[in-house]
């Protein structure tokens, strides 16, 4: 799950960077070009024209034409007039890519219960490199529109789930995250390595992590890790809501209880 | 969304066939080979060795080696020792492939409410060709373990959601499904075209579709379509449970109400 060493050159844009850079194809192989075409789509895109795909990938328009025809033939892309969009087959394959499928399935009812009990938005996330990837998001009726979405990414240090996972991870994961820099996501994001380490020590003691407007102003969150038999985090869950409406300390026991139950069930 | 004409040669195995055939690569293009490699993974697989991937795709082991290296470089596959597995990036890209992302996001809270109100399993599905693809599944505490899963497929005529969508689809979609044959999934599956057409006419009248052990013995389901401004189905939702515990007629108004609310919200 954690591939800090992973190639980030063509990384899919997460929710953190609203204007991600285009994907550049340095590797001229057909496989690399095909992959770049798929990775050129971003959240919010629907269909993209050939010119836009060429611009984003740096490929000649003739190549985009030819390669996309093949991808359409195999259902990875679909045509929409003269434009192209990602094929539903990618959704199907993508669902199989969550190695911890059992985690998602097992967590689902508990997440639904947490949403029901708190009326706020619940998350399930894993760590990948220096970022968290949301495997599940159930929006609550009382919660603000958060930037989190299923399949989206966020810098780990700026989120409750990320801090919950890091606090229960081997030291070198924390070093990797800090070594990569601690980008400011909102004006309250913790960007000081010393402060982050102190907070993580506290999270490790208490079993719950708080996030106060560190990922987006106006929202708070309380998170707790899902741990394996060795006590290492494999994921985390959280409940997030409005800063002036959700009392994180009051919800902490509920989140912690659900996390402990889920950890036990998975063992 | 509906691509009845789509190439089904390398179609991802759905939940309908517990032992899907290996993917065979007739088309020698790189796109075909890449698709075959990605589609070779099945539900329940974790990491697969190069030999197994070669066996499933019919590709030479040297090709599997070479192609998988590119896919690993771009995060679509990940290494696990000498074996390979689908990369988390595929999950991320796959989430972007659901064109009706707005549908999924909007349906989520309503599905959670339905699960809470019924304690059974709720589904959101769309039609693709002759099959439904599940975009969302929330398992209920009282429901049996159903074969449905997010990203999974099922023959449309054998499911409540499929019949709900077909009843609110143009005639030629129904013709396509019937023309492709009506495979028997359980011993109660409707395999008679005349009987299916009669049932669809009833569903069109009532706005709700029932499924009685037609997809798996022991379970029943009640479904209702999400329709656009022209009255055509774009998706369907359902509640499924045990045949001798869940009273479909009693739950029908709840499912219909949620479907109508969702249809209105999406307009």
Please provide a written account of the structure.
2 copies of one chain form a homodimer. The first copy, chain A, has helices at 30-39, 50-57, 61-73, 88-96, 101-118, 160-167, 171-179, 193-206, 248-266; strands at 77-80, 83-86, 121-128, 131-138, 153-155, 209-212, 219-227, 233-242. Chain A starts with 29 loop residues before the first helix and ends with a helix. Helices cover 40% and strands 19% of the residues of chain A. With 267 residues, chain A is α+β, with helices and mostly antiparallel strands. In chain A, helix 1 crosses helix 3 (61-73) and helix 2 (50-57) packs across helix 3 (61-73). In chain A, the strands form 2 sheets. Chain A has a 6-stranded antiparallel beta sheet, with helices on both faces. Chain A folds into 2 domains: 1-97, Arc Repressor Mutant, subunit A, CATH 1.10.10.10; 99-266, Beta-Lactamase (2-Layer Sandwich). Mean pLDDT of chain A is 85; it is low at 1-27. The interface between A and B is large, with 65 and 63 residues.
Fraction of residues in H or I helices of chain A: 40-55%
Distance between the termini of chain A: 17 Å
Q: Structural class from helices and strands of chain A?
A: alpha+beta
- The sequence of SSEs of chain A as H and E is HHHEEHHEEEHHHEEEH
The two chains with the largest interface, and their residue counts, are: A-B, 65 and 63 residues
């Amino acid at each position: 799950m954690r591939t800090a060493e992973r190639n980030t050159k063509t990384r899919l844009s997460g929710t953190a960077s609203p204007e991600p850079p285009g994907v550049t194809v340095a590797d001229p192989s057909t496989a690399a070009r095909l992959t770049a075409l798929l990775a050129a789509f971003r959240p919010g895109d629907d269909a993209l024209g050939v010119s836009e795909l060429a611009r984003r990938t740096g490929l000649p328009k003739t190549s985009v034409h030819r390669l996309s025809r093949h991808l359409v033939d195999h259902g990875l892309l679909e045509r929409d007039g003269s434009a192209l969009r990602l094929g539903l087959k990618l959704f199907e394959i993508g669902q199989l890519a969550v190695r911890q499928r059992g985690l998602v399935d097992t967590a689902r009812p508990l997440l639904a219960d947490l949403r029901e009990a708190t009326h706020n938005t619940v998350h399930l996330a894993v760590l990948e490199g220096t970022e968290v990837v949301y495997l599940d998001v159930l929006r609550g009726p009382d919660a603000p529109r958060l930037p989190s979405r299923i399949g989206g990414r966020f810098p780990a240090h700026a989120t409750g789930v990320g801090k919950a996972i890091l606090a229960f991870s081997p030291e070198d994961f924390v070093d990797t995250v800090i070594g990569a820099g601690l980008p400011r996501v909102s004006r309250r994001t913790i960007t000081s390595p010393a402060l982050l380490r102190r907070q993580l020590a506290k999270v490790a003691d208490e079993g719950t992590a708080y996030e106060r407007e560190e990922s987006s102003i106006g929202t708070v969150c309380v998170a707790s890790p899902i741990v394996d038999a060795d006590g290492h985090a494999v994921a985390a869950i959280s409940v997030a809501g409005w800063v002036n409406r959700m009392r994180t300390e009051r919800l902490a026991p509920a989140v912690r209880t659900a996390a402990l139950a889920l950890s036990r069930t998975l063992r």
